Amino acid sequence: MNRTLVWFRRDLRISDHEPLLRAAGRGLVVPVFVFDRALLHHPETGAARVAFLLAALHALDADLKALGGRLIVRSGDPVQVLPDLIKETDADGIYAYTDVERIYGRVRDARLNQALDRRGMKIRWFEPVASAADLIPYPQYRELWYREMGQPLVPTPQQVSVPPEIPSDPLPALDALGHWADEKPIPPASTAAARALLQGFLADKADRYYWQLSYPSAEATTGLSPHIKFGVISVRECVQTIRNTPDFGDNRVRRSHQQLISRLRWGNGFTQRFRYLPQLELRSLYRTFDDDGWAFDPDLYQAWQTGHTGFPIVDAAARCLQATGGYLALNFRTRAIYASFLSNLCGIDWRYGALHFMRHLIDGDCPIDHYQWAMQSGVTHCVDKTWTRIYNPGQTAVDRCDPEGEFIKRWLPELADVPPGQLGSPPTLSGYPAPILNYKAARQRRVKLLEAQRGKFLNARNLLPHLAQMPKDLTPFGTEVYGGEVAWAEDAIADLFPAALPLADLDVAQAAALRTWFVARVNVLPPKSRRRKPQVPATDPNIRQLTLLGDIK
Ligand SMILES: Cc1cc2nc3c(=O)[nH]c(=O)nc-3n(C[C@H](O)[C@H](O)[C@H](O)COP(=O)(O)OP(=O)(O)OC[C@H]3O[C@@H](n4cnc5c(N)ncnc54)[C@H](O)[C@@H]3O)c2cc1C
């Protein structure tokens, strides 16, 4: 009977999973997960995320058992473990989804392809839903995304039969993997839990999500992010569940449904950008922003990390991130304000911030995290001023994010008695620091620098030469601080699987297509000043929507 190895990576589910269904359809299946030390000990890996991963693997094992199978667990370098497992199990080959989250994974998968080839073994890669192998313009990708999200879900196999003689390691405890729990509460991790979150959202939050998603204390979002990061539920299943839920003609619900679907698309869009340009893990999109160098002040960095900047909204975000791993508690807007403070106002390289986020976020996802960091830092845009995201961390941010001060007071109990109207710049209090910087001066410095950097290629006809190239040294950022298993980077090969876009070989049309991923317009002329969109009035007058560009001058 045929035997197929199914290599689970960031697709820890049995439903809407094409490799699993195809493998089950052709015979016996060896569903395997490999604990890979290079990922477990990557400088950006955090204990809480590994704990969530472990819980998701237990759930996957249980789901496979319900189909008559089980998860086979191995440890080591997949480039060696998988060919050996093929031999040991007498399997015909491997089925797996491609994954582009990290450069390391793409180096490893290229090496695996070579190792299998050398041994005459086979692997069949499946494209994840809404992933484009070729360079297409962003509007076309958008269409592809909606088309593929509308395709029927891949059915769950009725049975998964695993050869009984194949041994498996037990699923290890967190400390056996070299990580120690840091007290962050880990949400239940399983497809059933993800479905329950989505159903709970649709029942209880869909009438307010659109208006409240930027208020951290409203907890108006789904909490799906760690599940989506590890593929515990497919994005397509989420989209279809939302679409199949009636809005009963309620405009609030309709807008919230649309907003959530758009955000799910944004997440996939960041992954696709990394597929094209994996260098975005290590570099700003345009060279000039890194070539000029960044400042690094260890005291500012530490104050920002630990929540001692003297700006309550920033300090509350800092402490919330460390205590909760950001799960549900640290929403998009608060992450953005917190991030922008470090890169724009402290002038510190965004990669230090992205690194800190990744070490703590339970939902840490490299393309979303790194690209959001780069965007908030203003280094993904060369012409459009609205992409200068410098938030006023004083009263403006408090009013727009936490008007009652609930979020701030939860994380900064020392400010319990300060009225909300003063939480932007609290009076001198023993036990709470004075502001570590002058907002206006810091902002001016940053705006001037960004203008000078952007000015260098403002009228360039061809932006390709200005884009960051794939660096020769692939050592992950943060290795010098946290160490890690990075030997793979020492003799890194030029090959990645899937391959990066060959920037040097792109023709004019391809270059234009690539640009659509990074700016709305393909021309490079500075935009005329645009009118701000009026704020959308909320149906409930007590609910105000945050304006995205509120404090951009
Ligand atoms: C600096 C910074 C770093 C971030 N890092 C991450 C990260 O590592 N992982 C991560 O999943 N999100 C990240 N985000 C985006 C966003 O903050 C989270 O997706 C969201 O807070 C997760 O909570 P939720 O699932 O309850 O959100 P919901 O609003 O319920 O969204 C559902 C899903 O849509 C996607 N999504 C929502 N908002 C965004 C967005 N702005 N950009 C891209 N995808 C989005 C996510 O997959 C999310 O799980 C970051 C944002 C910023 C500003």
From TrEMBL:
InterPro entries: Crypto/Photolyase_FAD-like_sf, Crypto/Photolyase_N_sf, Cryptochr/Photolyase_FAD-bd, Cryptochrome/DNA_photolyase_1, DNA_photolyase_N, Rossmann-like_a/b/a_fold. Coiled coil: none annotated. Its EC number is 4.1.99.3. Its cofactor is FAD. Keywords: FAD, Flavoprotein, Lyase, Oxidoreductase. One of its GO terms (molecular function) is deoxyribodipyrimidine photo-lyase activity. Residues 2-131 form the Photolyase/cryptochrome alpha/beta domain. It comes from the Bacteria. The keyword Transport does not apply. Pfam families: DNA_photolyase, FAD_binding_7. Transmembrane segments: none annotated. The keyword Flavoprotein applies. This is Deoxyribodipyrimidine photo-lyase. It comes from Leptolyngbya subtilissima DQ-A4.
